[in-house]
């Protein structure tokens, strides 16, 4: 479905002596099979959108090759665009037209009859909880409604390969859950392949068959969520004591079964492999020494722990992106289809 080798994108920023080259994507290889849901994770500025823009032919790679749905992104861009659905971060609606007209015009650009485009559009409005908004201008919709309208536009022609760039950003929890269901159904009901970028780790975890993690323009990990999480050195075990006098002894005991022991006031924590097997023995040991425990928490590794293990940084620490170059892309995308 998607095969890429050595994809590179270099941007030049600044002027004169301030000119700088940014290697936004730095040699990305990808192989995504039919029917896979792949989550593309990485901190702000890691190169996710730039990779997506190259695969969807909105941006010509500086180096490297890619085929999407069997079409070459360099020599067959029109075929690529016609065969995919793409929901960009910036959205793709013009605010002056009526939402329903936008959707049916968009379907017709993909070769659908007006009648089919209206019928499918109304179905999608219903599925994405946009009932009653067919005759409303996007500019008079809420942020979440506009986002769902973008998704209708990306799915109107029933593509079998869908690129979603942060599809649930700006949605309330209920709309997010609804979209998760919809994405899961794209695969289960229609065998669609989905490539999605997201900042929500729980979303990537819940939806993806496979996760790709990109950092500084390079793929640093690619595996199932379970395999990635099993690479983290165990569950986080946190013991809380009523009396600070117990903490040092407990830390020594915890160090015999775990790593990365940390003391925080009256609590002590560590990473412990096979915690279900070894923690009961630790508790018996503490009890036999008269150590009174106030509480215990065992947290399974998350994808954030995976990122932290791989890069030494948390995905949650990232700051918002500085530029908003995507505004221009929405126009390009609209014209290009
Ligand atoms: N048109 C551009 N000109 C110059 N630099 C750019 C341009 N587009 C992106 N960049 C830079 O390339 C790098 C990768 O950006 P990209 O938008 O692909 O990251 P991202 O992982 O999608 O981030 P986010 O999660 O914030 O959307 C960043 O350093 C960004 O500032």
Task: Please provide a written account of the structure.
- By secondary structure, this protein is α/β, with parallel strands linked by helices.
- The protein folds into 2 domains: 2-229 and 315-336, Rossmann fold (3-Layer(aba) Sandwich); 233-300, Alpha-Beta Plaits.
- Helix content is 38%, strand content 27%.
- The protein is built from 12 helices and 14 strands.
- Strands 6-7-8-3-9-10 form a 6-stranded mixed sheet, sandwiched between helices.
- Helix 3 packs across helix 4 (114-127) and helix 9 runs antiparallel to helix 10.
- It starts with a strand and ends with a helix.
- Residues 319-337 have low confidence and may be disordered.
- The structure holds adenosine-5'-triphosphate (ATP).
Main CATH class of the largest domain: Alpha Beta
The kinds of small molecule bound in this structure are: adenosine-5'-triphosphate
CATH superfamily of the largest domain: P-loop containing nucleotide triphosphate hydrolases
Q: Uncertain segments of ≥5 residues (pLDDT<50)?
A: 319-337
The ordered string of helix (H) and strand (E) elements is EEEHEEHEHHHEHEHEEHEHEEHEHH
GO molecular function, one term: ATP binding
Keywords: Antibiotic resistance, ATP-binding, Nucleotide-binding, Transport
Membrane topology: Peripheral membrane protein
Family: Belongs to the ABC transporter superfamily. Drug exporter-1 (DrugE1) (TC 3.A.1.105) family.
Brief synopsis:
With 337 residues, the protein is α/β, with parallel strands linked by helices. Helix content is 38%, strand content 27%. It comes from Gordonia liuliyuniae.
């Amino acid at each position: 479905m998607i095969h890429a080798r050595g994809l590179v994108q270099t941007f030049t920023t600044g002027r004169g002596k301030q000119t700088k080259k940014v290697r936004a994507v730095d040699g990305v290889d990808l192989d995504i099979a039919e029917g896979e849901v792949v989550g593309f994770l990485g901190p702000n500025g890691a190169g996710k959108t730039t990779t997506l823009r190259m695969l969807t032919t909105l941006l010509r790679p500086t180096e490297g090759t890619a085929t999407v749905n069997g079409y070459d992104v360099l020599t067959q861009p029109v075929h690529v665009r016609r065969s995919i659905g793409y929901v960009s971060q910036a959205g793709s609606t013009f605010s002056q037209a009526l939402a329903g007209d936008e959707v049916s015009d968009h379907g017709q650009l993909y070769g659908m009859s007006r009648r089919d485009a209206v019928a499918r559009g109304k179905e999608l409005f219903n599925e994405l909880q946009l009932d009653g908004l067919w005759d409303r201008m996007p500019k008079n919709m809420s942020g979440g409604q506009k986002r769902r309208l973008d998704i209708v536009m990306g799915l109107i022609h029933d593509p079998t390969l869908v690129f979603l760039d942060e599809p649930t950003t700006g949605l309330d929890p209920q709309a997010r859950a609804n979209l998760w269901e919809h994405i899961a159904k794209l695969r289960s009901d229609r065998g669609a392949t989905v490539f999605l970028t997201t900042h929500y780790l729980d979303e990537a975890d819940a939806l993806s068959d496979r996760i790709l993690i990109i950092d500084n323009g390079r793929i640093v990990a690619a595996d199932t969520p379970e395999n990635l999480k099993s690479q983290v050195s165990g569950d986080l075990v946190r013991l809380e004591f009523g009396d600070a006098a117990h903490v040092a002894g407990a830390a020594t005991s915890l160090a015999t079964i775990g790593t990365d022991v940390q003391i925080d006031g009256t609590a002590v924590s560590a990473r412990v492999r096979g915690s279900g097997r070894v923690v009961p023995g630790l508790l018996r040991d503490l009890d036999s020494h008269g150590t009174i425990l106030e509480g215990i928490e065992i947290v399974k590794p998350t994808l954030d722990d995976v990122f932290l293990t791989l890069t030494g940084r948390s995905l949650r620490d990232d700051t918002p992106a500085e530029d908003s170059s995507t505004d221009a892309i929405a126009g390009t995308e609209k014209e290009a289809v």
